[in-house]
Amino acid sequence: MWPVKSTGNPYYITDMSWMPMLGLTALPHLGGFYGGYVTRKQVKTWYKTLNKPSWRPPNAAFPIVWTTLYTSMGYGSYLVWKECGGFTEDAVVPLGLYGLQLALNWAWTPIFFGAHKLKWAFIELLMLTGAAGATMVSWYPVNRTASLLLAPYLAWLCLAGSLNYCIWRDNPDTDGKEE
């Protein structure tokens, strides 16, 4: 198991090499927790009043999907970080693009659910999808597994973009204000 200090205390961990894996895997969830906080009230009130396409996933699917996607993208970022030898010059582009797409990911929820700006959320989601695609491409030569861990995320972003567009299209006068 984990190496222990020579004192024989099995609860004293001296090898902390697992910390970057845990930290980088958990990082995307920080924005997810904030997004859940912003979304929780709005799903039961404002979002419920919107016209939505019949093919949209049930509300209960979203936290399950996002937990899975955030975990896989976070672990993928760890694989890239490890392959590049940490935050090195080689890591600037792949991890920089990852940081950009993560920031865009975290920004979507306050725009859509917080500000009720459906058009701007859609535009932001298009930029997010492009950044996520660029991240996936930049990860491929570094670590193919990491790159492929982003494939379900990219597919989900395409579904989310379609859903966001349809909601924007079908609700032109949302919250009493024209988008």
UniProtKB/TrEMBL annotation:
<dbReference type="InterPro" id="IPR038330">
    <property type="entry name" value="TspO/MBR-related_sf"/>
</dbReference>
<dbReference type="Pfam" id="PF03073">
    <property type="entry name" value="TspO_MBR"/>
</dbReference>
<feature type="transmembrane region" description="Helical">
    <location>
        <begin position="60"/>
        <end position="81"/>
    </location>
</feature>
<keyword id="KW-0472">Membrane</keyword>
<dbReference type="GO" id="GO:0033013">
    <property type="term" value="P:tetrapyrrole metabolic process"/>
</dbReference>
<keyword id="KW-0812">Transmembrane</keyword>
<feature type="transmembrane region" description="Helical">
    <location>
        <begin position="120"/>
        <end position="140"/>
    </location>
</feature>
<feature type="transmembrane region" description="Helical">
    <location>
        <begin position="146"/>
        <end position="167"/>
    </location>
</feature>
<dbReference type="GO" id="GO:0016020">
    <property type="term" value="C:membrane"/>
</dbReference>
<dbReference type="InterPro" id="IPR004307">
    <property type="entry name" value="TspO_MBR"/>
</dbReference>
<feature type="transmembrane region" description="Helical">
    <location>
        <begin position="93"/>
        <end position="113"/>
    </location>
</feature>
<feature type="transmembrane region" description="Helical">
    <location>
        <begin position="20"/>
        <end position="39"/>
    </location>
</feature>
<protein>
    <recommendedName>
        <fullName>Translocator protein</fullName>
    </recommendedName>
</protein>
<comment type="similarity">
    <text>Belongs to the TspO/BZRP family.</text>
</comment>
<keyword id="KW-1133">Transmembrane helix</keyword>
